[in-house]
Amino acid sequence: MSTERRAPLDRRRVADTALKLLNETGLDGLSLRTIARELDVKAPALYWHFKDKQALLDEMATEMYRRMVAGTPLDPADTWRERLLKANHGLRTCLLAYRDGAKVFSGSRFTGAVHAEYMEGTLRLFTAAGFTLAQAVRATTTTYQFTLGFVTEEQGVEPLPGERREGYDMDERARLLADYPLAAAAGAEIFTDWDRHYEESLDLVIAGIAAAYGLD
């Protein structure tokens, strides 16, 4: 009989396992039963930690956030523009690391106060730069929501880097829209070269924030 001891089952271990499975199953295929099987426990054991799938998604999003913060060191000397660029690049990188990563993150509620220190530092930086608190919140949430929405659409076409869903072949799209040449040509701007598209779009959002609030 094996004497190897299992690691104790806790919320973070379950979330870690769920994130590992996410790339295989996608969000729709991820269930507490699937995770329990991977952990070699009975499904009811997980209900001690999570009352339902949304509670699990909350913990998964929290773990994703922990990893994002760990991989995105922020400099107190950042300008507000630099902070928005770093934070949103870090968020996009984090979301793209998982199939349906943006869907997991969207609408989830962080467990505990893991985000508070990061948020506090960013709001202090913005208010010191001349933003009111309300303006700082609008600026940071607008760019956050832009990134989340962008990656949701990006993963709808490419669930993982190098993987492309059926129906997004640009040559086929151009043939179908042959009578609408501008719409056909726009496909390359919408459904390819995601990195460039994201960089240019984020720059537009940040320029709009600067113009709206009269800040450099």
TrEMBL record:
Gene3D superfamilies: Homeodomain-like (1.10.10.60), Tetracycline Repressor, domain 2 (1.10.357.10)
Cross-referenced InterPro entries: Homeodomain-like_sf (IPR009057), HTH-type_TetR-like_transc_reg (IPR050109), HTH_TetR (IPR001647), Repressor_TetR_C (IPR004111), Tet_transcr_reg_TetR (IPR003012), Tet_transcr_reg_TetR-rel_C_sf (IPR036271)
Keyword Calcium carried by entry: no
PROSITE patterns the UniProt entry points to: HTH_TETR_2
DNA bind region: 31-50
Pfam family, one: TetR_N
Keyword annotations of the record: DNA-binding, Repressor, Transcription, Transcription regulation
Top-rank taxon, per record: Bacteria
Domain HTH tetR-type per the UniProt entry, residue ranges: 8-68
The name this protein goes by in its record: TetR/AcrR family transcriptional regulator
Organism: Streptomyces ardesiacus
